[in-house]
Specification:
This protein has about 220 residues and is an alpha/beta fold. It is built from seven helices and eight strands, in the order βαβαβααβαβαβββα. The protein has a four-stranded mixed sheet, with no helix packed on it. A four-stranded mixed sheet has the order 5-6-7-8.
Length: about 220
């Protein structure tokens, strides 16, 4: 079972234009994912795992980040993809003081087609997430943060409500739906989305669940 990753990123991002740098305040972001993993083969560990995520949310609130990013997989790959499993974690996400930005992982929907996932239709699992979690152009939490969704600005992509971008401290961020299994299809370098910084920005900060490194391109 992969270990949950908690990265306190002291980004200290400032506005990009030189004339605005003095006015921009530093901020930090929390990135985490792959939790809670409550396996059906070890139900005795479920309470401890759920308690761990509750404590983590408290620690994130205490750190007072600009926003946390949950980069996919709210359940283990061996969990059945019932309605409760993909949707359950959003109860604790909604309790966060800061507005969590979430992008789906493969365990929440593509792995549902497997025997261990309950032989669910993956697209049906994805439709559930889109209708329940991404139905509004804001993210969860007690302090909501409006996002610009791909579905709202691209008429040809109205289904992609989970893809979104936002700006904080003059720097652009994006949540992209790239899952590790690539929907059980081969991954080619040209299939990766082009991410270009807006004019005047030093960089764009993308958040997604899949591995962006191409073994064929990088020789791995």
């Amino acid at each position: 079972m992969p270990r949950a990753a908690l990265c306190l990123l002291a980004l200290c991002l400032a506005a990009t234009p030189a004339r605005a740098q003095a006015a921009a305040a530093p901020f930090h972001v929390v990135a985490f994912g792959d939790m809670p993993y409550c396996l059906p083969t070890a139900p005795q560990d479920c309470a401890a795992e759920e308690g761990r995520i509750a404590r983590l949310i408290g620690a994130i609130d205490a750190a007072r980040p600009a926003f946390p990013i949950f980069a996919g997989d709210t359940k283990g790959g061996g969990d059945v993809c019932s309605d409760a499993k993909p949707l359950g974690p959003f109860a604790w996400m909604s309790l966060s003081a800061a507005p969590p930005v979430y992008t789906p992982g493969d365990h929440a929907w593509t792995d549902g087609r497997q025997d261990r996932g309950g032989r669910h239709d993956p697209l049906g699992r994805l439709a559930l997430l889109r209708s329940r979690v991404f139905r509004e152009a804001v993210r969860l939490g007690r302090r909501q943060m409006p996002l610009i969704r791909q579905a709202d600005v691209g008429p040809a992509h109205r289904a992609f409500v989970e893809n979104a971008r936002w700006t904080h401290g003059g720097e652009p961020f994006a949540a992209l739906h790239l899952v590790g299994s690539n929907n059980n299809r081969p991954t080619l370098p040209e299939e990766r989305p082009a991410i270009r910084p807006p004019a005047g920005a030093r960089a764009v900060v993308p958040a997604f669940q899949a591995d962006i490194v191409s073994a064929r391109r990088c020789g791995g």
